[in-house]
Amino acid sequence: MNRIHEPSATLLGAALLAAALVLAPAHAQDGDAAVMQMSQQLAALDADPDTASAAAYERLQARQALDALANARGSQKDVARYVAERRVRIAEVAARTEAMQRRIDRLERTRSELIVEASRRDAAEARAEAERLRIQARIQAEEAARLRAQASSSAEAMQDIESTLQNVAGAEAARLKAARAREAELARQEAELLRQAEEASGDD
User: 108 is in which domain, residue-wise?
Assistant: First the structure.
């Protein structure tokens, strides 16, 4: 009886395999494009003289996240992409914050010199500019802290996802084993019925 359904099952398997082969290159291209885009963002930080030497640790974390994304497979791909995007964003914010802080330091020194050498008006303008940049730097620092917290939460979420996938795989394996045992029992029963039928025919 099971042999009657084998051709349709084979055709269904072939169709699923063909669909996977068609969709896999497109998904891989999307992943490669994401890695390339984020790599270009980091390269832009390296090329900018203001940020070239800033946020070295955050940029290292971003590059490690990109490596993890490039090597991620299956369900881990989306989580790895999210973490990489967060890490790259953190690196950008941290680099610009540090560069802006350097500008603030330079402006502070300039302000001190202007107090001695220039008029009160020029010094007041420098103080206002320094204050404006200081406020911007604080906002950037707060955003960087928020993004770091999000990246940490993403790493914990990735661990939860991996644990869930392992549990699902175990349950699927158990169901497959039970189905195969049932199939074997049905085959045995079918063979027994055929044998009994043959014996009955022989008796007639």
Answer: 18-165
